[in-house]
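Task: sequence design from structure.
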């Protein structure tokens, strides 16, 4: 009971993964290439793939021209390739470890991502930071992913009431989900979206997760 009360006195910080804390570009792009090659189709460019990172796979493949009846097959091929390579081809972004470590000193932490929770937890464990998070909400944990507020609301419910809650992410989807959930959105420019687009929707924009954590720390001191 005392531990729960202590958690309620802290702010809550939710982190996106890709482009916010981790760089899994190589694993993602290679998985897409493998899927397109399997059907002897022209591969999309790396830039085209990266512009869609953060969306569910169904949306990404559909936006890259895959016919609807083939999307499930493309996802299966992608996941098979990704499963074999994602741990070795994913790294923390600069300042990612420090951001999570410092945030854990004054806030309750969670992850809200469109990756599956299994892959997300495995990655976080492999990168040495899973222990800092109270909850990890993935695509398979919700009916409606970001930009719907459902994953954020589910994470907040799991963590419990906080005086203030924040969502740190690199895409407008993170900000839209945060706004719909009624929490403060912080955009980071170290990922896949331009500062201009982030500034048009986020409550605050900064360079990276570490800068975002420092902003939150100062705001709550």
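Answer:
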């Amino acid at each position: 009971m005392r531990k729960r009360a202590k958690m309620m006195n802290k702010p809550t910080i939710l982190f996106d993964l890709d482009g916010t804390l981790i760089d899994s570009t190589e694993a993602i792009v290679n998985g897409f290439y493998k899927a397109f090659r399997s059907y002897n189709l022209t591969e999309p460019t790396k830039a085209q793939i990266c512009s869609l990172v953060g969306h569910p796979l169904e949306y990404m493949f559909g936006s890259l021209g895959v016919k609807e009846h083939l999307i499930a097959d493309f996802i299966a091929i992608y996941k098979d390739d990704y499963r074999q390579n994602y741990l070795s081809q994913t790294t923390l972004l600069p300042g990612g470890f420090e951001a999570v470590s410092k945030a854990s000193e004054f806030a309750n932490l969670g992850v809200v991502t469109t990756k599956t929770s299994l892959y997300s937890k495995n990655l976080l464990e492999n990168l040495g930071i899973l222990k800092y998070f109270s909850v990890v909400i993935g695509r398979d944990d919700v009916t409606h992913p970001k930009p719907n507020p459902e994953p954020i609301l589910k994470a907040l419910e799991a963590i419990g009431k906080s005086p203030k809650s924040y969502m740190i992410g690199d895409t407008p989807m993170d900000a839209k989900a945060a706004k719909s959930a009624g929490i403060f959105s912080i955009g980071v420019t170290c990922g896949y979206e331009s500062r201009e687009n982030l500034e048009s929707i986020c409550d605050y924009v900064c360079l990276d997760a570490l800068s975002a954590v420092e902003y939150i720390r100062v705001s709550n001191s």
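The two ends are 25 Å apart (CA to CA).
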